């Protein structure tokens, strides 16, 4: 069956180690777009951090943000899906974290706005290096509403203790992803890339058999399994590799683009 949509993770997948899209990859994705394939960026990043890549590739499909907690459509500026962590639970998680480690940094993304009570240069995410917070104020002034994603930042060893406590106290209420060592990303338990991709597919009228997903990490596993074809990067985690139908080159060798060229632009072979 012809592929009409490709869902692609950003970091570790579409972007190389320099956090860039190479000219080769951009050219292949534009060729896919010209052939009628919709490109959906599926990432843990907020919309503002995705838009430079979205614009570079001249995309027109909705994007999946915050690991599936938000589906945003830039052309219409519509929110198609929003699954935030309830404010009450977010406040309790922050309290648990601060009880275990009083100096832990607490931030929140609410739709496309960043809230925090303080900044430390030692603990800056990729997005934080490019964008300033919208609000810097005590938690009591802004952690009183549902949050799209809660972020806890600090020494990796202390975050491990916090993650264990949060998993124990908030089982089935939130999901936790530890990335970059010093960062815990906390989303609503039902916020996943696979669920968000189902929303995008429904919005565009495309069946799962007509979708290819490409990713490199554990948070990509669901969409790799749900899609008609799942492609893991050569640098992917063991879980992502096990979930995939195909394995391509790594993110520093235009692996995502090569998969699109081989499996879509040059004809689709049978799944193994």
The figure for the number of domains is 2
Q: Please indicate the percent range of residues in DSSP E strands (runs of 2 or more).
A: 15-25%
Oligomeric state, counting identical vs distinct chains: single chain
* General shape: globular
Helical region count? 9
What report would you give on this structure?
The chain is α/β, with parallel strands linked by helices. The chain has helices at 23-34, 47-56, 87-100, 139-142, 156-169, 193-204, 221-226, 238-243, 255-265, and strands at residues 5-8, 38-41, 63-65, 70-73, 78-82, 105-110, 113-116, 135-136, 149-153, 174-179, 183-188, 211-215, 229-232, 246-247. The strands form three sheets. Strands 8-7-6-9-11-10 form a six-stranded mixed β-sheet, with helices on one face. It starts with a strand and ends in a 7-residue tail after the last helix. Residues 268-272 have low confidence and may be disordered.
Task: State the main characteristics.
9 helices, 33% helix, Rossmann fold, alpha/beta, 5-stranded parallel sheet, single chain
In brief:
The protein is 33% helix and 22% strand. The chain has helices at residues 23-34, 47-56, 87-100, 139-142, 156-169, 193-204, 221-226, 238-243, 255-265; strands spanning 5-8, 38-41, 63-65, 70-73, 78-82, 105-110, 113-116, 135-136, 149-153, 174-179, 183-188, 211-215, 229-232, 246-247. Strands 8-7-6-9-11-10 form a six-stranded mixed sheet, covered by helices on one side.
């Amino acid at each position: 069956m012809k592929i009409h949509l490709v869902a692609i993770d950003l970091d570790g997948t579409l972007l190389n180690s320099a956090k860039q899209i190479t000219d080769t990859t951009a050219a292949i994705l534009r060729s896919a777009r010209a052939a009628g394939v919709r490109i959906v960026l599926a990432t843990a990043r907020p919309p503002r951090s995705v838009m430079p890549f979205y614009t570079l590739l001249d995309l027109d499909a909705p994007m999946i943000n915050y690991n599936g907690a938000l589906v945003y459509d830039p052309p219409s500026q519509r929110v198609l899906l929003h699954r935030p962590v309830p404010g009450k639970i977010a406040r309790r998680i922050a309290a648990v974290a601060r009880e275990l480690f009083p100096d832990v940094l607490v931030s929140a993304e609410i739709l496309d706005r960043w809230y925090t009570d303080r900044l430390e240069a030692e603990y800056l995410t990729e997005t934080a290096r490019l964008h300033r917070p919208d609000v810097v104020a005590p938690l009591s002034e802004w952690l009183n509403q549902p949050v799209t994603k809660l972020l806890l930042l600090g020494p990796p060893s202390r975050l491990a203790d916090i993650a264990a406590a949060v998993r124990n106290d908030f089982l089935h209420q939130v999901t936790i992803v530890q990335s970059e060592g010093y960062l815990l990303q906390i989303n609503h338990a039902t916020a996943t890339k696979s669920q968000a991709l189902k929303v995008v597919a429904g919005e565009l009228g495309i069946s799962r058999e007509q979708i290819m997903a490409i990713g490199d990490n554990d948070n990509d596993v669901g969409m790799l399994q749900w899609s008609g074809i799942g492609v893991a990067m050569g640098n992917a985690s063991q879980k992502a590799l096990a979930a995939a139908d195909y394995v391509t080159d790594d993110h520093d060798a235009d692996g995502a683009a090569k998969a699109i060229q081989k499996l879509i632009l040059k004809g689709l072979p049978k799944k193994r």
